[in-house]
Design goal:
Layout: E1 4-10, H1 20-26, H2 28-47, E2 52-57, E3 72-76, H3 82-95, E4 100-104, H4 113-122, E5 128-132, E6 138-143, H5 161-168, E7 174-176, H6 196-202
Parallel strand pairs: 1-2, 1-4, 2-3, 5-7
Antiparallel strand pairs: 4-6, 5-6
């Protein structure tokens, strides 16, 4: 068994329920297509890594979808706010016996296996690793032991999450990866080659 678990939080890809801020500019159908493209990129990135993989769905475990087939453990997210859901996922991973657990989002167009490999390597020398997102949150969190202070007393979805997390974990050795940008708004599509045609069509 792999000693490391790589998790992604994914939304069940339903029309009108994903990328709602992006949909205000390009419509729900196009926003769903963008999210499905991001899911495909997330999947290929995860498959390229030497880890056990898992996905945690936002609503329910789908019967037959892109995550079926045996490569991924599949769970449903549990808890209220994002911190509670992440806490549950990490505890699940450690309870299954993994030495380290890394969680990534599913709305990153530029994440690749190097980011995961860097996180795993740095976890050999520190308590946790974070990948800062340009919106003030983080796109990756990894740790080699459960630390609940990462997951509570945060204003989730705001630009203070990363700074608040670093303050609350100042007693731990934390390493940071390079910043990346989530795809949440129309402006986030700019500069991404795979979405250039869509951006050009709606940029007026």
């Amino acid at each position: 068994m792999h000693n490391n678990l790589l998790i992604s939080f994914v939304r069940n890809p339903e029309l009108g329920k994903v990328k709602t801020r992006l949909a205000k500019k390009i419509g729900a159908v196009n926003a769903l297509e963008v999210y499905n493209d991001l899911l495909e990129h997330t999947k290929s990135t995860m498959l390229a890594t030497n880890c056990q993989k898992a996905v945690f769905y936002s609503e329910h475990v789908a019967k037959n979808d892109m995550w079926s087939g045996g490569e991924f453990l599949r769970f449903t997210q549990c808890g209220g706010h994002l911190g509670e859901r992440m806490s549950h996922a990490f505890q699940t991973g450690f309870n299954l016996g993994f030495d380290s657990v890394i969680l990534i989002g599913s709305d990153l167009a530029t994440i690749n296996k190097t980011h995961i490999e860097q996180a795993l390597d740095r976890l050999k020398r520190c308590h946790a690793v974070l990948g800062p997102a340009e919106d003030g949150g983080y796109y990756l969190i990894g740790m080699n032991r459960f630390h609940q202070e990462f997951f509570y007393n945060k204003a989730w979805g705001t630009d203070t999450v990363l700074n608040d997390t670093l303050k609350d974990t100042s007693h731990l050795k934390i390493d940071l990866l390079e910043p990346l940008n989530d795809v949440d708004t129309f402006e986030d599509l700019q500069g991404l080659k795979q979405f250039k045609t869509l951006f050009d069509e709606y940029k007026r």
